[in-house]
């Protein structure tokens, strides 16, 4: 027989006979002893870090600048929206002023059409169509049709005629057409109104 030891895991006696064997509990105690002081106060340190970060954030001028930037951006957006709406109103008023000069001409064209002067082919009907087309391109819309319900905001009643069978006040005849540009009223329609007979 040989004096060889079987290969495999070495027994604890074979490791290092000079090192004392330390139980597992005492190893943990040594690890705690070797850790730096104050590491055991992890919760306190974490709270202190949060408080320090919050204080630094309060003193941080970039947060204040960001708030100022947001406020100025909102003010600019409101300013832009307001000026765009004001610009549209100013445009409508300017076009309305120009169209008011043309209203007598448009009224004459309406009267000529009622009398049949614009029927057929000729220079006068062509010029009338071009003038009305140019006015429409400016955004001017005529209103005031026979049969419309009378609206005192948009119609001016120059005559009321009691009509049998009428259930509500409606436009019976249009004397002068009304015009609007967008939301701006250029001129009310002057109309004869059919009222319910008593």
TrEMBL record:
<feature type="compositionally biased region" description="Low complexity">
    <location>
        <begin position="23"/>
        <end position="38"/>
    </location>
</feature>
<comment type="subunit">
    <text>Homodimer.</text>
</comment>
<feature type="region of interest" description="Disordered">
    <location>
        <begin position="1"/>
        <end position="45"/>
    </location>
</feature>
<keyword id="KW-0963">Cytoplasm</keyword>
<feature type="compositionally biased region" description="Basic and acidic residues">
    <location>
        <begin position="1"/>
        <end position="18"/>
    </location>
</feature>
<dbReference type="GO" id="GO:0051082">
    <property type="term" value="F:unfolded protein binding"/>
</dbReference>
<comment type="function">
    <text>Participates actively in the response to hyperosmotic and heat shock by preventing the aggregation of stress-denatured proteins, in association with DnaK and GrpE. It is the nucleotide exchange factor for DnaK and may function as a thermosensor. Unfolded proteins bind initially to DnaJ; upon interaction with the DnaJ-bound protein, DnaK hydrolyzes its bound ATP, resulting in the formation of a stable complex. GrpE releases ADP from DnaK; ATP binding to DnaK triggers the release of the substrate protein, thus completing the reaction cycle.</text>
</comment>
<dbReference type="GO" id="GO:0005737">
    <property type="term" value="C:cytoplasm"/>
</dbReference>
<dbReference type="GO" id="GO:0000774">
    <property type="term" value="F:adenyl-nucleotide exchange factor activity"/>
</dbReference>
<dbReference type="InterPro" id="IPR013805">
    <property type="entry name" value="GrpE_CC"/>
</dbReference>
<dbReference type="Pfam" id="PF01025">
    <property type="entry name" value="GrpE"/>
</dbReference>
<dbReference type="InterPro" id="IPR000740">
    <property type="entry name" value="GrpE"/>
</dbReference>
<keyword id="KW-0346">Stress response</keyword>
<dbReference type="GO" id="GO:0051087">
    <property type="term" value="F:protein-folding chaperone binding"/>
</dbReference>
<dbReference type="GO" id="GO:0006457">
    <property type="term" value="P:protein folding"/>
</dbReference>
<dbReference type="GO" id="GO:0042803">
    <property type="term" value="F:protein homodimerization activity"/>
</dbReference>
<dbReference type="InterPro" id="IPR009012">
    <property type="entry name" value="GrpE_head"/>
</dbReference>
<keyword id="KW-0143">Chaperone</keyword>
<comment type="similarity">
    <text>Belongs to the GrpE family.</text>
</comment>
<protein>
    <recommendedName>
        <fullName>Protein GrpE</fullName>
    </recommendedName>
</protein>
């Amino acid at each position: 027989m040989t004096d060889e030891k079987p290969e495999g895991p070495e027994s604890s006696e074979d490791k290092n006979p000079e090192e004392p064997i330390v139980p597992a509990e005492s190893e943990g105690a040594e690890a705690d002893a070797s850790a730096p002081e104050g590491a055991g106060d992890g919760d306190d340190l974490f709270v202190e870090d949060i408080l320090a970060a919050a204080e630094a954030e309060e003193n941080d001028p970039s947060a204040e600048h960001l708030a100022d930037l947001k406020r100025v951006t909102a003010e600019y957006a409101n300013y832009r929206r307001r000026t765009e709406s004001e610009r549209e109103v100013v445009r409508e008023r300017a076009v309305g002023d120009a169209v008011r000069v043309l209203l007598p001409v448009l009224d004459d064209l309406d009267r000529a059409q009622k009398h049949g002067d614009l029927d057929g082919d000729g220079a006068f009907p062509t010029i009338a169509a071009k003038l009305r087309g140019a006015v429409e391109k400016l955004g001017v819309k005529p209103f005031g049709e026979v049969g419309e319900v009378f609206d005192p905001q948009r119609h001016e009643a120059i005559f009321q005629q009691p009509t049998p069978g009428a259930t509500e006040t409606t436009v019976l005849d249009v004397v002068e057409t009304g015009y609007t540009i967008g939301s701006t009223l250029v001129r009310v329609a002057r109309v004869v109104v059919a009222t319910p007979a008593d």
